[in-house]
Amino acid sequence: MQPEARTNRTALTDFILLGLVETENLQPMVFVLFLFAYLVTVGGNLSILAAILVEPKLHTPMYFFLGNLSVLDIGCITVTVPAMLGRLLSHKRTVPYAGCLSQLFFFHLLAGMDCFLLTAMAYDRFLAICRPLTYSTRMRQMVQRILVAVSWACAFTNALTHTIALTTLNFCGPNEVNHFYCDLPQLFQLSCSSTQLNELLLFGMSFIMAGTPMVLIISSYIHVAAAVLRIRSVEGRKKAFSTCGSHLTVVCLFYGTGIFNYMRLGSEEASDKDKGVGVFNTIINPMLNPLIYSLRNSDVQGSLWRVLLGRRSLA
């Protein structure tokens, strides 16, 4: 560590985000593509949310959690993409140190909430299929709210822990972040002090945040699969697998990219792979979720059409 770093914990006042592409000729195309993706994602998730709010038949626990997921998807892409679009328009790539920390905090808050919400959705499917007689009492409105509140509390604790831990590092050298948003692995590489404890904390918290929900989700779906296979009706099996298939697809996309990005030890050089994973986490996943849930769900499709046409269900 350099002597001046000891006296001034954070010598750098801002970072430079290099973005997805450095070639100026490609930046207009990137702007158009990401603006389109942002509008599609926000529009799709708002449509899902509107359908759930106005349709009485969708006022069930499964769609309550799906509505919360839509809010998270809008938040996740809004934390990263508008700021990137602004930098492409202004040609200014600098981000203040405090702004970088804020973006990192909110991104990890929303991503952490996603982890626990997907677990709550798996628990809901387990109760609906494996414990249908007690489902209405075990998944009553108060239980739904408690699950969401606990998820927010755990996600907030995780995000705050990482943000506070990052402020203990010294940044006194290069300030170029090889990414299009501020994230922990890339910021670790710029620190002029040891990041070993921070990396262990990231690995450990990621293991808890991803490992525990994954175990719960897998165990829930083992029970669900066993229960579905006992259903004699082919139509009944198809309907049960359809409602679970959408959720499992989202789980695989979310956890697959998250594990690759955060459960790594050692400071590896930032690469285009990290940017690709970042695009998946912040843009592709939130954009695909409305499509995944609507394409395989006739109730959501019908409700979306009624919302778009200004009609309401009589149910």
Short précis:
It is found in: Cell membrane; Membrane. With 315 residues, this protein is mostly helical.
Verbal overview:
The chain is an all-alpha fold. 73% of the residues lie in helices and 3% in strands. A three-stranded mixed sheet has the order 2-1-3. Helix 2 packs across helix 11 and helix 3 runs antiparallel to helix 10. The longest helix has 34 residues, at 97-130.
Low-confidence stretches: 1-8
Proportion of helical residues: over 70%
* Rounded radius of gyration (Å): 21 Å
List the total number of helices: 11
Tell me the strand percentage band. under 5%
The span between the termini is: 67 Å
List the helices and strands and how they pair.
Blueprint lengths: L2 H5 L6 E4 L9 H28 L6 H30 L3 E3 H34 L4 H4 L2 H26 L9 E2 L6 H5 L7 H34 L4 H29 L9 H24 L2 H12 L6
Parallel strand pairs: 1-3
Antiparallel strand pairs: 1-2
Give short descriptive properties of this protein.
single chain; 315 residues; mainly alpha; 3-stranded mixed sheet; 11 helices; 3 strands; globular; disordered N terminus; sensory transduction; GPCR_Rhodpsn_7TM; Olfactory receptor; G-protein coupled receptor; transmembrane helix
